[in-house]
Automatic annotation (TrEMBL):
<dbReference type="GO" id="GO:0005737">
    <property type="term" value="C:cytoplasm"/>
</dbReference>
<feature type="domain" description="Ketopantoate reductase N-terminal">
    <location>
        <begin position="4"/>
        <end position="147"/>
    </location>
</feature>
<dbReference type="InterPro" id="IPR013328">
    <property type="entry name" value="6PGD_dom2"/>
</dbReference>
<keyword id="KW-0560">Oxidoreductase</keyword>
<dbReference type="GO" id="GO:0015940">
    <property type="term" value="P:pantothenate biosynthetic process"/>
</dbReference>
<dbReference type="Pfam" id="PF08546">
    <property type="entry name" value="ApbA_C"/>
</dbReference>
<protein>
    <recommendedName>
        <fullName>2-dehydropantoate 2-reductase</fullName>
        <ecNumber>1.1.1.169</ecNumber>
    </recommendedName>
</protein>
<dbReference type="Pfam" id="PF02558">
    <property type="entry name" value="ApbA"/>
</dbReference>
<dbReference type="InterPro" id="IPR036291">
    <property type="entry name" value="NAD(P)-bd_dom_sf"/>
</dbReference>
<dbReference type="InterPro" id="IPR051402">
    <property type="entry name" value="KPR-Related"/>
</dbReference>
<dbReference type="InterPro" id="IPR013332">
    <property type="entry name" value="KPR_N"/>
</dbReference>
<feature type="domain" description="Ketopantoate reductase C-terminal">
    <location>
        <begin position="172"/>
        <end position="314"/>
    </location>
</feature>
<keyword id="KW-0566">Pantothenate biosynthesis</keyword>
<dbReference type="InterPro" id="IPR013752">
    <property type="entry name" value="KPA_reductase"/>
</dbReference>
<comment type="pathway">
    <text>Cofactor biosynthesis; (R)-pantothenate biosynthesis; (R)-pantoate from 3-methyl-2-oxobutanoate: step 2/2.</text>
</comment>
<dbReference type="GO" id="GO:0008677">
    <property type="term" value="F:2-dehydropantoate 2-reductase activity"/>
</dbReference>
<dbReference type="InterPro" id="IPR008927">
    <property type="entry name" value="6-PGluconate_DH-like_C_sf"/>
</dbReference>
Amino acid sequence: MKLGVIGAGAIGGTIAALMDRAGHTVEATARGDRLAAIKSGGIHLSGAWGEHVAQIAAGERLTTAPDLALISVKAQDEADAIRANAAALEGVPLVVVQNGLDGLAQAQRLHGGSPTIGAIAFFAADCPAPGHVRALVPGPLYLGAGDGEPTADAVNAAGVLSSGISAKAVGNFVGCQWTKLVVNQINAMPAITGMSVQSTIADSRLCGAVLASMREAIHIGRRQGVGFGSLEGMNPLTLGLLGSAPPAVGRLLLRIMARRLGSEPVLGSTLQSVHRGLPTEIDYLNGAVAERARALGIEAPVNAAITRLVHEVEGSRRFFAPAEVVQRLG
């Protein structure tokens, strides 16, 4: 089958390499040094899913219509990427692999009524060098749309993708998006401090701040009437403990989560963007929690403050020491 991958970064590049290894014909898009490296030497996959070099077609846009397309760009770049590839995407099922809550709805509006499926990547990967992707923590793709049973389009797309990576069509996709949003609260602190996810959770002061941001996200989701979904070890019971158990229990749960990440430092996508000098997705992660809170007429002060700190790092390229972070969060 012919697959198109729009955005061959850490997540998209990993999926592209895995699907090439599974025998599919893959064309990917990228920009700058990543594009040059892929065109000259392919995508080099390493890490948890083994080694593979995917010699695939690559350009700034898809050149032909695939049988199935995936888009895995930063949330703020999604609309432009869909418009730029509109000719190749017409009538093609599109899988939106993205953080945040609004990417699928926006893609559905822009994709002209063609099948559009949401996807949550529950694995960690990075790009140690242009043309190289490294899978740090393996995990599946969850596909779906809406808050009901999985759609036929999601089931079909999961069937294709499962030839290269574990892929599952799930019900209550909206609830799963909220669960991933809670999990993604671990992304901001590395971007603020320059430390790995594991190191920020090991620091009791920073761990407490991450827990507070998660609790706000859980509270806002509940106020919106969200029924949280289950993603691997993150289920409504675990989220209930994170949201209401004594802080010591919450910090223990976070440390258990961090141990599951392994010993290889996980930087998170937000810090990876900072290192590359690119805008982060923070407005679609912690910022989304603060925005949803304001829409309800309440506040999410920890998430709002974390969003501001990440933007300060984006502007100054200066990381904050843990003590300074705690002081700024009040």
